[in-house]
Amino acid sequence: MQLDSYIGYLILFGFAAIFISVSYFVGKKFPIEGVDDFVVAGRTIPYALIAASVMVSWVWTTTIMGAAEAGMWFGVSGGLNYSWGACVPFFIFIPLVIHLRKMMPRCTTFTEFVEQRYGRTVANIFFVFGIGVILYVFVEQGVGIGIAFSHIFGIPYQLASLIPILIVTTYIAKAGLRGSIFNDVIQFFIISLVLLVTVPLVLKTIGFDALYNGMLDVVNNPDNINHNPEALSMTSAAGLRYGIAAVVIAMGQVLLDQGYYSKAISTVSTKSLLYAYIIGTIFAWAPIPILSGNVFGVATLALGVGPGNGIELTSEAAPYIMKLIYGGGLGSVMFILMIFMAGMTTGGNCLAGAQALFTVDFYKKFINKTATEKQQLSFGRKITVALGIIVGVIAMMLEGVSLLRLDIFSGIIFAAPASAFFAGIYWKKTSPAVAVASIFIGLAAGLTAWFTIPNQDINWFVGNILSLTVPALVVILGSLFGKFEYDYSIMKNYVPDHEVRATE
Amino acid sequence: MISETFMKIYFIGAYAWFATGFLLIAIPAIAEIRKLLFMNGK
Question: Which ipTM was obtained for this model?
Answer without folding.
Answer: 0.93
